[in-house]
Design goal:
- The protein is an alpha/beta fold and 207 residues long.
- 38% of the residues lie in helices and 16% in strands.
- The protein has nine helices and eight strands.
- A six-stranded mixed sheet has the order 2-1-5-6-8-7, sandwiched between helices. A two-stranded antiparallel ribbon has the order 3-4.
- Strand 3 and strand 4 form a beta hairpin.
- Helix 7 crosses helix 9 and helix 8 crosses helix 9.
- It is globular, with a radius of gyration of 16 Å.
């Protein structure tokens, strides 16, 4: 099971790396989480350089893909060659998530047709210009597509992926691990209230 986090030049550390950390709380054979980038290394909006663990070609074949956000997302969608590499993304065969300005990438790929979305406040007008209704909430999913708005909502997106692929208990366990001490039950309950309604056949946590 491969989960790829698309991470571009100018990426937001909170969006890509929080998701990476939470998703890696799953300890199952064959479970792999990768930072996928168009180049061998990418520099964050705050100057943090990381090495890619997977290519874009690897990412579009993954079981789940999260599109991270950053300061240069509009440059990403203006890069025809790069966007062409992302064309194979397909919610009929994989889970697709987008964090903040990553929502703009899914919109430009035509994957949010008649699907409302979440994003950050700066990106909101650009997503609306792309013809997508933007919701005033941190998380929304329809079928195999999910979007999250606000850096710390990346935890919700990661938990949704885990819940879809490994079950609600695994998602709650991952969230419980990273939640602040003394607030763990409340944190997990809040997160599950946000993602629970979008989990087909899943029961929301009673915590």
């Amino acid at each position: 099971m491969h989960i790829a986090i698309l991470t571009f030049e100018g990426y937001n550390e909170l969006d890509s790396l929080i998701a990476l950390g939470i998703l890696n709380r799953v300890k199952q054979p064959g479970w792999r989480v990768s930072i996928a980038s168009p180049s061998a290394k990418v520099r964050s909006m705050n100057g943090v350089v990381i090495e890619a663990q997977a290519s874009l070609q690897d990412a579009v074949a993954a079981d789940a893909v999260i599109v991270g956000s950053g300061m240069q997302t509009r440059e990403v969608i203006a890069d025809a060659a790069l966007m062409q590499q992302l064309k194979p993304l397909d919610p009929t065969r994989q889970l697709l998530g987008a964090q903040c300005s990553g929502t703009l990438v899914l919109a430009r790929l035509g994957l949010l047709d008649r699907v409302p979305a979440c994003t950050d406040l700066i990106t909101k007008p650009w997503v609306q210009e792309a013809g997508v209704d933007v919701l005033n909430q941190p998380f929304f999913a329809k079928g195999n597509i999910a979007t999250a708005g606000g850096c710390l909502a990346s935890a919700y997106l990661a938990a949704w992926v885990i819940a879809r692929l490994q079950g609600v208990a695994a998602a709650e366990s991952a969230l419980h691990y990273v939640a602040p001490v003394g607030e763990k039950d409340a944190y997990v309950a809040q997160a599950m209230r946000n993602i629970g309604p979008y989990l087909p056949g899943a029961e929301r946590s009673a915590a």
